[in-house]
Amino acid sequence: MNEGELFSGRADRRADVQGMRPGAEQGGAGAEVRSRPQPYPGEVDTIGAKHLGFAPEEYLARIAAVRGRMSDQGLSALIVTDPANIYYLTGYNAWSFYTPQLLFVPSSGPLTLFMRDMDARGATHTSWLPPEDIVGYPERYVQRPHIHPFDWVAFALRQRWEVARASTSPVGVEMDSHFFSPRAFRALVNGVPEWRLVDSFELVNWIRAIKSPAELALMHRAAEVTTAAMTAALESIAEGVGQHEVAAAIAAAQIRGNDAAWGDYPAIVPLMPTGESADTPHLTWTDRVFATDESVSIELAGVHRRYHVPLARTAVVGRPKQELVRLEGVVAEALAAVLDVARPGVPTAELARTWNRSLALHGLEKPSRLGYSIGIGYPPDWGERTISIRTEDDQILEAGMAFHLICGMWMNGYGYELSESILITDSGADTFTAFPRELIRL
C-alpha cells in the first residue's frame, strides 16, 4: 500500500464513522460526552427487546457478574468474541460468527456490539440491545488481505470515546476464542496502542458454569430433543443401511424435536465411529453400510435455543463381541460409582479418581478426561471450555453446574462409548435423559 492509499483509507475510515458519537453534540474533539446509563433489557422498541429469551433481571445479573469479575481481574473493559458469550449477555443469535464480531463491555455504561453491516439489523431482531449500540462495519472490510474489520472497529471505539476511558487498566480479550484470529488481535493492538490487551481467561465462560432455573428449563427441553434424536438413530440402523442415511435421520430429529420442544442446530454434527474405526472418537459418516455383528458408537446432542444436552450410546447390529459385553458391564459400574459421589462440595478430581479406581479394578484405564461443563454451544464445540473432570482439576462442584460425562473406551480395533449429561443438584446428580445405560442390541 502506498502513502496515498494509506491516507485515503484513513479518510474513508473517518467518513465511515461520522455521527457515531451517541449522546454528544457533533463538535470537535473537545465535545462534551454525555454518559449514558446501562440500557434496561426489554425497554427498547425492537423485535429482540420485545421477545427476550430471559427476564430483563437475568441479563442485568449476568452483566453485573461479568463486571464484578472484571474488577477482580483488574480489567477496565472486556472484548468478547465467543458467539456463546455474546448470546449469553445480549441474546444475539445468528450464523454470522464466520466473520469477525465483537461485543465491547466497559466497566460501566452501555455495551456495544460490532458486526458486519448486513448482520446489524439481525441483532435488533434477536438481542435486547438498542440500535445505537449495534454497529455494523462496512462490507469492504470483509475478507480482505490487507485490512481487517477490527481496524475499523478500533477507530469506531475511539469515535465513541471508549478508548481513553478504558486506558486506565488492562483490557481483557478472549485469547482462546475459536473466532478470534491472530489478525484480529493484531488489528486491535495496532488500532488502539493505548490499551494493554491481556488474556481474560474465559471470564464469561466461568460465569456461565452455574445455570439459572430458566437456563435449566431450556436444557430439559433440549434433553427431549436428545432422546428423540437418539431414538431416530437406533431405529434407522440396520444391516445394509448407509451411515449417511442414519445421519440424515438424526439431523431430521434434531431439528424437528417433539411436541414439547423444537430443535436447534447442534454445535457438533452426529459422530458415528463404526466397526474397527470405533477404536477412536470424533469420526463422522460416509456411505459405508452397516454389517452384521458390527458395533457403532453414536454421539449426538439435542439442542433448544442454543442449550445443548449431549448423549452417547453404543449399538450393535446382531451379536456383540465378547470384549464389548465386558466393557458394557465395567463402564456401567464405573459410571454409577461416579454418579454416587457427585454432589455440591465435591472436587471434580474426586469424580475422576472414582472413575479411574473402578476401571483399574478391571485392569483398564482411560487417559482422556471423563467430562466437561456444558450449556450454550456454537460450532465447533458444545463444551464451555472451563471445567474438566480429570484428576488435575480441583474445581468444587456447585448446584446448577451441568456436565457431559463421556465414558469412552477406545481400544485396539474396537470401542465402546456411553455418556450422560448430568446436572448437579442440591442433593446429588441427576441425568437429563433416561435412555437405557447399556449396549443396545438391534
List keywords for this structure.
single chain, 442 residues, alpha/beta, Creatine Amidinohydrolase, Chain A, domain 1, Creatine Amidinohydrolase, 2 domains, 5-stranded antiparallel beta sheet, 12 helices, 34% helix, 20% strand
Would you give an account of this structure?
This protein is an alpha/beta fold. The chain has two domains: 56-208, Creatinase/prolidase N-terminal domain (Creatine Amidinohydrolase, Chain A, domain 1, 3-Layer(aba) Sandwich); 210-441, Creatinase/methionine aminopeptidase superfamily (Creatine Amidinohydrolase, Alpha-Beta Complex). It is 34% helix and 20% strand. The strands form three sheets. The protein has a six-stranded mixed β-sheet with strand order 4-3-2-1-5-6. A five-stranded antiparallel β-sheet has the order 10-9-11-12-13. Helix 9 (213-236) runs antiparallel to helix 10. The longest helix has 24 residues, at 213-236. Residues 62-210 form the Creatinase N-terminal domain.
Assign the CATH class of the largest domain: Alpha Beta
Q: Which quaternary structure do these chains form?
A: single chain
Helix content: 25-40%
User: Radius of gyration over alpha carbons?
Assistant: 24 Å
Mean pLDDT: 93
Shape: globular
Low-confidence runs (pLDDT<50, min 5 residues)?
1-11, 21-34
Instruction: Write the H/E string, N to C.
Output: HHHEHEEHEHEHEHHHEEHHEEEEEE
Quote the beta fraction.
Answer: 15-25%
- Largest beta sheet: what is the strand line-up? 4-3-2-1-5-6
Q: Give the CA-CA distance, first to last residue.
A: 65 Å
Give the count of structural domains. Answer: 2
Overall CATH architecture of the largest domain? Alpha-Beta Complex
